[in-house]
Design a protein that fits this description.
180 residues; alpha+beta; Aminopeptidase; 29% helix; globular; binds coenzyme A; acyltransferase; transferase; Acyl_CoA_acyltransferase
Length: 180
């Protein structure tokens, strides 16, 4: 259950500025691959234009404060040449962040649910995939709550700054499974 006062909305430059005030906290980056993003004018301006053909983002606002976001990148699936319409630009890659002060209250689940609804609804994608460190329990719990399937347990396939080579998981969901 999410709390009252939570609103899911489109990205803006102002929400990007708020995100950058907590994006680099150690408790946020601990289990994330991309450790730093540059705080440039381009990055902030990009947020407002983020809903282009291959990137989509949904932002969580709680009582006026930016508390999370989910991003969906559109990528090519795999397939044999001659059938490009089937797989080019038909897959999504999902990732999400929630402000640590608001963790454990269902915000990431609400964001990811909205991102999946967009992916399989208006974007017409056929498959969405996401990866995480196996020890990032909160992250894979979100995916399991939404019915995503653990398709890969990679043994020591992911490098972590503090822990070295550790296990990773890949989760995925098909459009027809979402519709069920
Ligand atoms: C991962 C993250 C997005 C989760 O956000 P959140 O809003 O707390 O997620 P939700 O509240 O929707 O769900 C989290 C679930 O994990 C569970 N959980 C959290 N930590 C846990 C732990 N250490 N052990 C077991 N379960 C845990 C929660 O209880 C909850 O499950 P439940 O509803 O069945 O009780 C957030 O912690 C975050 O932004 N982390 C930093 C960035 C990151 O790692 N992103 C994902 C990269 S793959």
């Amino acid at each position: 259950m999410t709390m009252s006062g939570l609103r899911l909305t489109s990205p803006t430059a102002e929400l990007a500025e708020q995100f950058l005030t907590w994006r680099h906290r150690p408790d946020v980056t601990r289990w994330f691959l991309q450790q730093r993003i540059e705080h440039t004018e381009e990055y902030v301006a990009d947020w407002a234009a983020y809903d282009d053909h291959d990137h989509h983002r949904v932002v969580a606002v709680l009582d006026g404060a930016m508390v999370g976001q989910a991003t969906l990148g559109v990528v090519d699936g795999m397939g044999q040449s001659g059938n490009e319409a089937e797989f080019v630009g038909r897959e999504g890659r999902l990732s999400y962040f929630v402000h640590p002060d608001h963790a454990g209250r269902g915000i990431a689940t609400a964001l990811a649910r909205e991102a999946l609804a967009n992916a399989f609804g208006r974007l017409g994608l056929r498959r969405v995939q996401a990866g995480c460190f196996a020890d990032n329990v909160a992250s894979w719990r979100v995916m399991e709550k939404l019915g995503m399937r653990r398709e890969q347990h990679g043994v020591k396939d992911s490098f972590h700054t503090e822990f070295g080579w550790v296990d990773g998981y890949t989760y995925a969901l098909l459009a027809e499974e979402w519709r069920e």
